[in-house]
Input
Amino acid sequence: MTDHPARTTGLWRGVWHAFAQHRGALLGAVVFGLIILTVYLGPFLWTLDPGFADIRARNQGPSWAHPFGTDNLGRDTLARVMAGGQISIAVGLAAMALSIGLGSLIGVLAGMFRLLDGPLMRLTDLFLSLPLLPLLLVMMLLFNESLTSLLGPETGTFILIVGAIGLTSWMPTARIVRGDVLALKEREFVLAARSIGTSPAKLITRHILPNVLSPILVSATLGIATAIITESALSFLGFGFPPDFATWGQLLKDATVYLQDYPERVIWPGLAISLTVLSVNYMGDGLRDALDPRARR
Amino acid sequence: MLSYTLRRLILAVPTLLFIALVIFLLLELAPGDPMAQVPLTVPPEVKAQMREALGLGEAMHIRFIKWLVQFFWIEPQVFMDHMFGTSLSEGKLRVLSWQHRGPVMDVVAERLPQTLWVVGTAYVVGILIALPIGIYSAYRQYSVFDQAGTFVTMIGYSIPPFFSGPLVIALFSVQLGWFDFVYDTTHEVTDWASFKVQLSQMVLPVMVLSLQTTAQISRYMRAAMLDNLNQDYVRTARAKGLSEVVVVLVHVLRNSMIPVVTVIALGLPAVFGGAIITEQVFSINGIGAQLIDAIRANDLPTVHTLTFIFAVLIVLANLLADVLYGLLDPRIRYD
Output
């Protein structure tokens, strides 16, 4: 595939074509793009401070001054949802990058070197049998204090959450990549590369990695969704960022307290999470179909 | 098959031991001190004695071995005593909670039924809804029903329980006032009226949990049916004049259920994980809530025991999935 530079554009054009044909995937990409734009560029247009407590304007419904209403301290919900999205999406992307990096590394090592295959796959099995949500909660509790005192509340928690999610979600990627590498290793072009004396490192970076890129891309896309859900779950249970950082899970948690009096308040952060995850999942689905040459028509 | 199952069971033991060790070591790094709540006026000698009583005085490996003995040797004896009225465990030390000053397993035994009722019902309901949806979606691929079904399951897949929970509460309990959203754990079913109360308080959590199950399993069911519907044996079955019902529900369904059954088995622990969040939303006093309480209170023996129970569930579910796969699919041979 990609070992002919001249045909690379052909492959990606075909992938793009198939991706664009998948209506759900295209719509998902557009919605996800819009969410990212709103969350990161929106605060320049909507300049209310998400942390500013206007105590006289608390518990308001939607109005022109506050399109999404205000919370129990009079903070503007629209500004808070955008600020929360910045953290939640940043955590999602960073955790996905870590998990994909780890997963690909372990998958390629296990697939390429028979000596490492057994131990690394047993490690993967072991991680797959760990109860992840309880362990994540425990990790958040144990290391939060020491990391936040070392790096400050925001950076410390960010690194901890990203690290914890990344360390507990690399296994599916590793398995898929290992399987693909094992199959690729037997192909003629790898044999040819080997026979002209390509070093193992070159073999991996030039011949193996470009060919396992498509499963990695698919699990990367779907990984964003799981990472965002996990981060929100942690915040929702009260084990995420400190309460004054508005992540989507935190906003949802704050809103559930006032569920009886202001049930409409759960909608905005919940909708933000669900819409992001839905669009990312559709993107992943379309990408999977687009990158699989057998499914392409 | 039997020898394979036995081999897997034996192999599960070192895995579980290793997992127990990993959890134990992780908890050992805990900076929290269980004695932090003790007033400063308590003299240091008394504090040292209290430490000893909590089992904190010994070296790490001794405490780990003690926990193993307590969990794997003494707790089963307690269970035997409870079941058959023997007195095997008399005077033996059990895994003690720092929070409740009592055996951890007693609290687990108290709370597990709550979780099992809700989680079990939700899983069964979810599967029962998912299977017909998956079958019909695949049979009429790209029809309106299929498109709608795929879209709805995608939404169900994407809405996390901590949003669908508040959402159904806001809708059914605050707006419509149909159900109560605070789960009454102490409620006992004695007659028809109390059974109806129990049912009505279970509706919302079961709805939230089964939404996830339905979404996942109907996707798998649809994919598995689609894999089989175009196979040669289906054409043969139709050609020899079997009715569509028999072709789809007997020939295709039986073959499609093989991967779906393993997915159902593999999904069990995830439902327990989801129950942690759902229990928090509906304030159900199950083991998920117990775990969260214990983590907040720095109650390490309880956290260790509960996390380990979750790990056992996962390992057993994996084993069950593999064994079922071998039993159902005659092409699979584990020798």
Notes: Chain B touches chain A through 46 residues (CB under 8 Å). The radius of gyration of chain B is 24 Å. The first helix of chain B runs from residue 2 to 28. The CA atoms of residues 148 and 279 of chain B lie 30 Å apart.
